[in-house]
């Protein structure tokens, strides 16, 4: 029986202007970026078979759709491409048109269901979904309220808002101490049950409604940040997108900026420098920066400086760094800051400044500021302390200070062995071993000892 040609996929290839070979090359690029080595042997003939009606297997449909999405600068679903793999709720969560209340329920349900979780955990980080929504989208979101048929009977008051804020802050403190791999499922359960119910409840006035949406947005953002820290980048991106939608529903500009800043940070870490700069530029646009408090403005600014540095805009990065320092100096006890910025102080500013200087090629300045961050970091921020030490060690060894780097990395391992569950921290150990490899082969004692310890650590966390 002859197969029916996949007209949808063929049309998308035509829209992209790709030959079969070009489509295969784009597919392999996405697969490599996501460490999906089993899919890096795809060639022109595979694409030809898919157009002819053969169905790609495993995660191939998702990879192909991500490649097309990047090319066409819009989200391409598996349904549109004519693939029989159903579109996961995880994919729909990236669509700015999907209602945030629907996205919260679908995303949370998928995340918590053991049988369906693989749909979400197996999702790819989508560079195509990083486009900042248009002004018309923001205006439309601010006008929308839940339909009457979706409103519940639960009365939601100021105390409920405070409860959500307190719970989210408690999880945020846990994240700072133990890393994003500890407790995120419990946060998602809370968002999916209690918070989702509050959002469709009956509010005494519009201010309480707005505050509840903002609290829910912060919870979604935090779930995204914890997933990002644990290396679950596709999951993180979906929760960040949800957080922006919830914040947009009530016009919370500073919170939208805060989440765009996190998305920029993630894109930067993953090597999408142009997208990171676009997101960080959006984070400081208009009221997102102007309405923010001094501490939050400093946080937005220093990440923007990092993105400018990654895009080789040296003078602009230096200027923004100085402004971030000025903003943080203006923060004081008389100004009520949002609880989401509690972690950002001198040590965090020094850490991000060091990263910026490192990317600008100023190793000496980077080492100085990494040391300042290590020196001023409080004991409650063990995860970031470990990551900072990892960065410091890498910068030291790149500058030729091998013995010093080994001592720094040893301190990083001390911190990581205190119950930290963080993909970013783990990645520091992976990169540490790569840096140490030539020195270990030369028999440098400190490198040999540290390599053994690093290998033991990775065996316990893998």
Outline type: globular
Query: Distance between termini?
Result: 47 Å
Weakly predicted, low-confidence segments: none
Q: Give a count of the beta strands, DSSP E runs of length 2 or more.
A: 0
Quick synopsis:
Helices cover 68% and strands 0% of the residues. The chain is an all-alpha fold and 462 residues long. The longest helix is centred in the middle third of the chain and has 24 residues, at 206-229.
Task: Provide a descriptive summary of the structure in words.
With 462 residues, the protein is mostly helical. It has a domain of 80 residues. 68% of the residues lie in helices and 0% in strands. The chain contains 23 helices and no strands. The protein is globular, with a radius of gyration of 23 Å. It starts with 6 loop residues before the first helix and ends with a helix. The mean pLDDT is 90.
Features:
23 helices, single chain, mainly alpha, 462 residues
Secondary structure blueprint with pairings:
Elements: H1 7-16, H2 20-33, H3 44-52, H4 60-72, H5 89-92, H6 100-112, H7 117-121, H8 135-143, H9 158-178, H10 184-199, H11 206-229, H12 233-249, H13 253-269, H14 273-283, H15 287-290, H16 294-310, H17 314-329, H18 346-359, H19 363-376, H20 382-398, H21 402-416, H22 423-441, H23 445-461
Helix pairs in contact: 2-3, 2-4, 6-10, 6-12, 9-10, 9-11, 10-11, 11-12, 11-13, 12-13, 13-14, 13-16, 14-16, 16-17, 16-18, 17-18, 18-19, 19-20, 20-21, 20-22, 21-22, 21-23, 22-23
């Amino acid at each position: 029986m002859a197969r029916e040609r996949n007209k949808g996929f063929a049309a998308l290839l035509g829209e992209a202007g790709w030959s079969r070979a070009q489509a295969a090359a784009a597919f392999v690029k996405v697969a490599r970026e996501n460490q999906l080595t089993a899919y890096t042997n795809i060639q022109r003939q595979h694409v030809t078979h898919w157009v002819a009606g053969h169905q790609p297997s495993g995660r191939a449909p998702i990879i192909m759709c991500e490649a097309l999405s990047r090319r066409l600068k819009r989200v391409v679903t598996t349904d549109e491409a004519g693939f029989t793999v159903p579109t996961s709720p995880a994919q729909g969560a990236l669509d700015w048109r999907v209602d945030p209340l629907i996205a919260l329920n679908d995303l949370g349900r998928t995340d918590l269901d053991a049988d369906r979780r693989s749909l979400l955990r197996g999702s790819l980080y989508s560079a195509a979904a990083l486009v900042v929504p248009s002004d018309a989208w923001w205006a439309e979101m601010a006008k929308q309220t839940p339909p009457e048929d979706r409103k519940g009977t639960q009365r939601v008051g100021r105390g409920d808002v405070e409860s959500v804020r307190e719970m989210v802050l408690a999880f945020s403190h846990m994240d700072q101490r133990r890393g994003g791999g500890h407790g995120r499922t419990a946060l998602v359960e809370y968002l999916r049950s209690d918070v989702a119910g509050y959002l469709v409840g009956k509010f005494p006035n519009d201010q309480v409604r707005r505050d509840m949406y903002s609290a829910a947005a912060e919870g979604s953002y935090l779930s995204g940040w914890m997933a990002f820290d644990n290396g679950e980048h596709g999951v993180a991106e979906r929760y960040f997108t949800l957080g922006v939608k919830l914040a947009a529903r009530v016009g919370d500009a500073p919170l939208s900026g805060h989440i765009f800043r996190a998305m920029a940070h993630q894109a930067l870490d993953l090597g999408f420098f142009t997208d990171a700069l676009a997101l960080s530029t959006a984070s400081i646009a208009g009221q997102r920066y102007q309405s923010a408090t001094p501490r939050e403005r400093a946080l937005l600014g220093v990440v923007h400086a990092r993105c400018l540095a990654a895009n080789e805009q040296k003078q602009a990065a230096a200027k923004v760094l100085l402004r971030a320092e000025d903003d943080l100096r203006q923060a004081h006890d008389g100004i009520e800051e949002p609880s989401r910025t509690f972690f950002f102080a001198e040590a965090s500013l020094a850490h991000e400044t060091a990263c910026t200087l490192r990317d600008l090629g100023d190793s000496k300045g980077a080492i100085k500021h990494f040391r300042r961050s290590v020196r001023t970091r409080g004991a409650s921020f063990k995860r970031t302390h470990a990551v900072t030490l990892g960065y410091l060690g890498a910068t030291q060894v790149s500058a030729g200070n091998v013995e010093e780097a080994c001592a720094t990395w040893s301190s990083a391992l001390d911190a990581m062995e205190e119950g930290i569950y963080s993909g970013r921290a783990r990645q520091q150990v992976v990169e540490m071993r790569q840096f140490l490899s030539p020195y270990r082969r030369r028999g440098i004692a400190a490198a040999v000892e540290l390599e053994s310890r690093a290998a033991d650590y990775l065996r316990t966390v893998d």
